[in-house]
Amino acid sequence: MPITVFVCTVDKTLNMSSPLSCVCVGEHLRICPQGYTCCTSAMEETLSNLSRREFEGLVREAGRSLQASLNAQYRSFDTYFTDLLNSSERSLQESFLAKLSSLYSKNAPVFQDLYTDLRRYYRGSAVNLEETLNDFWARLLERLFKASALPQYTLTDDYLECVAKQTETLRPFGDVPRDLKSKVTRALVAARSFVQGLTVSGEVVRKVSQVPLSPECTRAMMKLVYCPHCRGLASVKPCANYCRNVMKGCLANQADLDTEWQNLIDTMLQVASSFSSDPSVDVVIYSIPLRILGAILYMQENTEVFTSKVFQACGTPRVAGTQSSGSEERKKRVNPAGTTMEYKPSPTAGAQLEMQISDVSSKLREMQQYWVQLPAALCSSKVAAGAASDDKCWNGMTKARYLLEVMGDGLASQINNPEVDIDITKPDMTIRQQIMQLKIMTNRLRNALNGNDVDFQDASDDVSGSGSGMCTGESCAHNGPRVIVPKADSTRYYNHPENKKVKGTGTQTHPSILLLLLSLATLLRRR
What we know:
The chain is mainly α. The protein has a domain at 52-319 and 351-413. Helices cover 58% and strands 2% of the residues. The protein contains 21 helices and six strands. A two-stranded antiparallel ribbon has the order 1-2. The chain has a two-stranded antiparallel sheet with strand order 3-4. It is rod-shaped.
């Protein structure tokens, strides 16, 4: 058969379903089936590149939609929790100005620094929460003791430092510091890990959605989308199962995210549910002012006993030459009869928390199957033929039924994929790294469920980038939690399946199992 060459222009803005207008002639092509064709070799190459760009654009667009949902939940919860902290601080200021105005006005930085550090911890700064709370009680004790101690004594800085060190042993505030530390730590750890889970999820989606299409998949996409145009069958859509095999092959590495993605979503749902557990997160945060007020009242009621114990521990201070102004402060005590020591949440506050949990949980469940549902989503009715057209669809060769089996999900399931040549022994390293990020984040969240602090490494430079939509840099001190991800080694190792020789173009190498064990041991030590 003679080869006929002709010129035909192609619109480079062509969509997948756009028809190709030209006259059928004969020319052998490298991708499309042999026979009469509407395309030249040059046109085939152009359309092949176009199909690659369009497919990568569809994957990125689907990823952006998922990121937008994660960002919306991030902003919603961040606003809610930040408002909790702000309202709690306002309540403390109002309560103390009404009951202990002089004490508060002279020591306002102590209380302000507490809430500043709580916010910094929530936003991901390297703040030790336990040390922050211990330091608050120590500073408060210094000032209260100085204000309430007998006026005939001179209290030096060294002496007040000794007094502060007695916080744990003499328990001047009763059980409040220990109880408050336990509850506040659990609430803050859960809240911080939750927003970081949303952040890490969004970054995983962004990075995975930018993985380029392999040459084998470019050929498969060209054959799926534009070869029917070259055969003069522009109006014929690909068979649904044919489309699924191509998509499952080209998204095989992405589908391997599914297990760890679902584990992460499940754990985030558990953390979200824990926010309403007794005591709920709003009760814990709103009750901070009353707990501090109750601690001060306890100390005032036991001032003489505590002072005596301090004198035993730190020695009797030097007698002052003149009477201290502290005598006036000692007369200004909280009236126990007019002070409520238990926070009772309003029905509105409880309803707001329940709505917050319900909304975020619903959205998380919707995205739980994202990676295994993506191939079917890209083979929607706009792209592939419906069930009624099984006999009238493009099957990769002609207009007829597609008879081949549909492959499973994931890289290992593609060993016999009839439409895409894949080397299952060489997984995409970018995606494997993101799988490890999901695993580590899940472990952090599980620790947070038990109230264990979460050790994050500031890595905003690594995870920031166009399209992330997440907060990065120092501006996050005002706008929201910083983008920080769990510590992880940058290199991930995987073994070759035995005796599997499959075509492909991967270039990754795989070290021995010993290196894998060493990296896992390092990870366990960090925990």
